[in-house]
Amino acid sequence: MQPLISPVDHESRTNSYRAEEENRGTEATPLLQRFPRYQGNDNHYRTRAVVSLLLLILLSGIVIGTYLLIIQSRSENVLPPIEEPERYVSRLQWDKNKEVNQLNLVPQLKKDTVIIVQTDTEQCDGIKTCSMLLNSMQENGTLLQYNFLVSPDGESFEALGWRRNSIIFPKYSTNALVLAFIGNYTQEAPSSAQVMQAKIFLENSISQEHLDLNFNIIGKKTKEFPKYLFIELSKLPQWNKQLSDMD
Fold first, then answer.
1. Where is this region: Disordered (predicted)?
2. d(CA 169, CA 63)
3. What is the mean pLDDT of residues 70-85?
4. How far apart are CA 175 and CA 207, in angstroms?
5. What is the torsional sign of CA 101, 106, 110, 111?
6. pLDDT over 90 at 57, yes or no
7. Minimal CA–CA distance to 211: which of 168, 171, 178?
8. Are 164 and 106 spatial neighbours (Cβ–Cβ below 8 Å)?
9. Is 179 left (phi over 0), alpha (psi -120 to 50) or beta?
């Protein structure tokens, strides 16, 4: 009697089943490779790190911006730093009559206003020449009613000084300093040395506590209108256009 399945058929079927399993394995393998193992935790930590870094940068920018705004607001009324020393000439160095001693001293107080004028005279250069000019200006017995003067070559000359009030502008005499630019500036601008020395004088006046930090600069006419002097000094942040004389 012959078996129902011959050994040959059984072997061929077995080989066929193996081939099908292998084919299934090769078909499944690419599917596994297309979908790698889930790495959600790594991506989550990476995202949090990036977001944290961006927030830190943003907060740093806000802090720095706020700080710069505060510094800018505080410095709006402050003269820029100047490295050059002040060239100062005391009254004793130029006044041959020593007439300033006739005036009484007033209490030392910080002034809050600087009044800019011109002397309406010729210009001068050097201590000797300017001293001659200043002495000639008071030869008629009239005391120079300026607190300080600035020469075209960049020197500060003491007149009334800090503790004597000028009577040129009675409205401001108590709280103001009168700073005169030697010369006439109706047709020409003051020299760069003269403007620089005025800035140095004002800066030193603040540091020596003669002048309030939040002071005003006012331009006033005495005889002729110093148009180009006012144009130059109006560039300073302390310039008060409303209180200054206009052409």
1. 1-28
2. 47
3. 51
4. 18
5. negative
6. no
7. 178
8. yes
9. beta
User: SS3 for 13?
Assistant: helix
Place of tokens 């004028």: 117
Q: What is residue 239's DSSP assignment?
A: B
The two tokens of residue 154 are: 């960049």
Average pLDDT of the chain to the nearest whole number: 80
Distance CA 216, CA 212 (A): 9
Cβ atoms of 179 and 216 within 8 Å: the answer is no
d(CA 43, CA 38): 10
- The per-residue pLDDT for 87 is 83
Output the pTM of the full model: 0.66
- Between vectors from CA 103 to CA 157 and to CA 226, what angle results, nearest 5°? 40
Can you give the pLDDT at residue 233? 96
- Give CA–CA dist 149/77, Å, rounded: 23
158-205 confidence digits (pLDDT tens): 999 998 899 999 999 889 999 999 999 999 999 999 999 999 999 999
